[in-house]
Amino acid sequence: AAKKDGRGRARTFTRSMLIVLEQREMLRRSLRTALQEGQFFIEYQPFVKPRASIVGFEALLRWRHPLVGIIPPSVFIPMAEADGLMSEIGQWMLEQACRAAVTWPSHFTVAVNLSSAEFLHEGLTDRVAQILDLTGIRADRVELEITESVLLERTINNLDTLNTLNLLGVQISLDDFGTYYSSLSYLKNFPFDTIKIDQYFIKDLEHDEKSQTIVRSIIALSHGLGMDVTAEGVETEGQAAWLQKEGCDRLQGYFLGFPIPAEAIGEFLRKSAAVPMAGALRT
Ligand code: C2E
Ligand code: MG
Ligand code: MG
Ligand code: MG
């Protein structure tokens, strides 16, 4: 009976697997033309500084597929990486985000995520320099976010790349800190401006002492090394208040603002000026 059950289960599993695979194959094929067809768009999620309101936005890529609808980056970015398309998409992304940011108040920054294929691409630093030139954005208004997983590959040239980006004047953030290896040697060796604490440590913050201890330590560590700290995934007022009390430099999350399309930013800024963002956080 066990064998039959097993086989039956295996057959069902295979069929749904097949559907998933066919869907993935369909997506992969349409990913090749998505850029030319103008199917990508960007949403911007605010960064908020306690007491000083909005200080910038993170650019988050979305794909509007004509049949499937909006596909999140967690689904299509790994495909684009595997098919060697991410470098070109990333270039488009950075240029669009910089073009948008020059229209914002001049102290606002724009953060753009770099996947490993983009970071490891030989032409990255030239390309960043070109886009700064082309869009006329001040270099220090641009933040590039990388995760530790990016640094795990090809360690020797990584420092060169980061140093060159640093010389160009852009800022570099370590994204999702705490979820990968969290090797402290990265913090010693690489010139990050900001560490972003992964939302995993933020979600239980109000009730879980371990999360509190970890977050407090990351804040102290970052400040001790002269880096700023951003908390990701702040969803409640309690989390925001706790983070402010502990000296976290910037907050990001649904409590402070959802990702919104570029066209909605003007309205968002007008509203938050009238009803200050995170008004409850001002002391
Ligand atoms: P990330 O850079 O860590 O971005 C934060 C993710 O958390 C975003 O998901 C954002 O929408 C979501 N988020 C923000 N606030 C909250 C909150 O309060 N609660 C919860 N539960 N989630 C929140 P999204 O947009 O789906 O992006 C997922 C990941 O995809 C990003 O993680 C980033 O690694 C990657 N990604 C997005 N856009 C790009 C891009 O243009 N290039 C590259 N290479 N990667 C990108
Ligand atoms: Mg990010
Ligand atoms: Mg992150
Ligand atoms: Mg994250």
UniProtKB/TrEMBL annotation:
This is Diguanylate cyclase. Residues 24-273 form the EAL domain. The chain holds residues 282 to 564 of 564 of the full protein. It comes from the Bacteria.
